[in-house]
Every structure is written in structure tokens, then in C-alpha cells.
Amino acid sequence: MLAGGLDMGPHTARKRRRPESASGRDDERKRCSHGSPDHDDDGGRDHRGRGARQGPRAPDRCEEGGCCEEDDRREGAGEEGTRGEGDDREGRVRREGPRKSTRSKASAPEAEEEDDDGEEPVVEVEADDAAETPEVADEGAEKDSEEPVKDIVLPKGALVLKADDEDDDVPVYSTAITGATADPVKDYLKQIGKVALLNAAEEVELAMRIEAGLFAEEKLSSMGKDEIRSTLGRELSWVAKDGQRAKSHLLGANLRLVVSLAKRYTGRGMQFLDLIQEGNLGLIRAVEKFDYTKGFKFSTYATWWIRQAITRAMADQARTIRIPVHMVEVINKLARVQRQMLQDLGREPTPEELSRELDMTPEKVIEVQKYGREPISLHTPLGEDGDSEFGDLIEDTEAVVPADAVGFTMLQKQLESLLDSLSEREAGVIRMRFGLGDGMPKTLDQIGDTFGVTRERIRQIESKTMAKLRHPSRSQSLRDYLE
Fold first, then answer.
1. Where DNA binds (residue ranges) (predicted)?
2. Residue 254 and residue 287: Cα distance in Å, rounded?
């Protein structure tokens, strides 16, 4: 509501203006080139501002109206600019709170002039019913939606698992897997469980693509570089890649079959994950050799290859002391027959009974049983408390008994004193003949060459010296070591 009683609407801007001075009126008269009477005096209404205060009498417009129309256009543009500023400020005032008003400088040409007191004209904007603009609403929504993003700090060396599909239940950042706290079996089973199982028709389709891919690879291997770049070569390359994709799909859909078969061989000397990996090698072999024209499902054919790969790996890797594969098969056969006869007879079968069943000699049966024994660690604890170990009860045959070591040392000293009682040639012949010095006995010819005499002469010296040593005066001191 304006001061004069005219309701201009909730968004109407009011402009207050002081009376112009005499010099201002003279300047305004000069702008009228045709000498029209004063049309902007103190008592007249300013036709350039719609929101100006009412006067007693409106001034007469100039006859031609050119300058006044031009002034009206300028004033209208200034008023529209003022309204635009007011609307923008209304939006800002609306965000700050209800029933707020703001004061700003007028943008119209007339408002640029200061009054006599040096005060600037101001524009009052009513913000009672101002509506919020879409741009302001969008800015507010964006500010409200902005939240501080915290960086996820993971431990050093951690492995981060990310979900491949948006619909997957696995979070984008799962628990960091570090060290011995990880469960690789669980993670592996979770990964292979994402691939859906195949029906018979899908298996046949994949098998056909694999067969075509293998054929394309064989053709490409016999082609030259120029032929590979040709249209036929590019088509064969595409078929080969498609066969690889089909092979990967068929493998991924049957990894759970390997896990189910590997569970049957746990606790036999190999880790569960090692059994799974060996079974996967058999699965790859089955994918390459599967013949879909036979009409059987792929799992029926692949089971044999998976079992064969697992059992072969156990024969090569499960034992501490490796045994040849053919001997492992004999050991397993003997163990099966022995268990069956134990159930039939109610007692352990003898080697003779086993030999009749296996068509081999009893000595061979005993030998195979020795091969089948598992090695036992010397550090195996014994007793309920486990204070002693199995190695404590095993005799070390290579260990030196202290009493024997002392007796051997005394015997060496006694022999040295006994040889010192002989001549130099006789003692030398005895030492070289029996290897008392270096442990290497010499022949008569070698000793004769050393002393420069014949072989017969060395034999005579040896016989004479041994007769001296057998004399009771010398041999009595050595007889005690023979007992």
C-alpha cells in the first residue's frame, strides 16, 4: 500500500524523492529544445516515476513530446532495473527470514543525483509475500544435500574387495583382509557363488563355441602374418576369442563342482585350497575334451577328470617321502583289501591271507605295508601332559658313548708307547700296513717302494715285528682292551 492510498500490489517498490532545486529545474527546461513550459516543477507530478508522491497539479506535456517520450523511456528502463534489483533482494531476504526489508541505491537515472543535503535516494522493498525463486530453491537444496565426505582409512597392506554388480550384497568397501585373520576359503566360495549354474542347453551352446574356438586357434597357428590380417584371419581371431569367453564361462559355472569333490579328500596330507586348485586343473582338461554330441551332462563327464587330478596330486605331493604313483595304487589296493578282510574275519588278516587275495608273495605284502607307513615326527608329544617326545625314546646309533670314547683314547696312547719300543723301520712298517696313522692300510708293494726294498723283505719284517708284539711282556697291557 502506497502513502497516497493507491494499492500497487505486494511486490510494488516505493521510491522517495526530495524536491529538486532551482538549478535542477532550469537544467530540465533546457532539455526541451522547443521551449515548452516547465513540466517538472515543485507542484507537478513526476511522470518519469510511477511510484512518486502525488502533487496538487500535473504539468502540461510539451507539444511535440519528443523529449518527454525519450525521458519516459529512460525512466521506464531505470524503473524496471530497480524492480529487478528489488526482486533479487526479495529472494535473498526471503531466505534470511520473514518480513525483512532491505535498502539499496536506486538504479534509475534520476536516482543517481544526490539531493541538496547530500543524501542518496533509497528504495524500500516489501518482502512479506515474496516467493522463493527456483534458482534459490535449487541452491538451498544443494547446500542441504552437501555432507562432509570422510576418507576411509584402511590398514597398510590391506586388500579391499569391491562389488562387481550394483545389486550385489557385498559392500563397496568390505572388511580389510590382512594376515592370519583372513578366511581365503570363505572368500573363494563367495566369489564362485556369483556365477549362475547352467542347464543342459546352455552347456551344449558353450561347448559348441569352445569347439569352434579351438578349431579357429588351430587354423590361425598354421597361417602367416598376411593371412591373419585378412578378412578370414580376423574372423577366425574373433571366433577364437569367443571360444575363450565361452570356456571361461563354462569353467566359472562349474567351480562349485570341484569344491564338492575336493571335500572328500581333506585330511590326507594336502590343504583344502590346494585340493581345489588341483581339481580346477582337471576341470580345465574336461572343458577342452568334452564331447557334447554324446548327450551327457558336462558335470557327469568332468567328475572323472577332477577326481583323477586330485588323486594324482595327492600321490605326488601328500607324502613327506614321495612314492611312485604305481606303488601308491598298490598301497591303496592293499589297504582296501585289508579293511574288507578285517570286517569279514573280525581280526587283522595275516600276510599269507592278503597274498592270496592280491596274488602276490607274502614277502611282497610285507614290503608294501612298510611303504605305506606314514612317517612320525620325533617331536610328537607322549603322555597326557606331553612332557616327553617320541624322539627321547629312540636310540641314536651314531652317538658316541663317553666310556667308549675314553677307552679308545687310552688304547691309542698304549699303542704309541708299544710302537716306541720297536725300531724305526719296524714301527713304520706296522703303521703303514694297518693304517694306524691315516686310516689307509698299504700293500706290501707300496711299503717296499717307500723303504726301497722288495715286497718279500717287507713281509719278513712284518712277520718278525708281530712276533715281538705277541710276546706276553708287550701284549699283556693290550689284552685288557679286548674284553
1. 444-463
2. 10
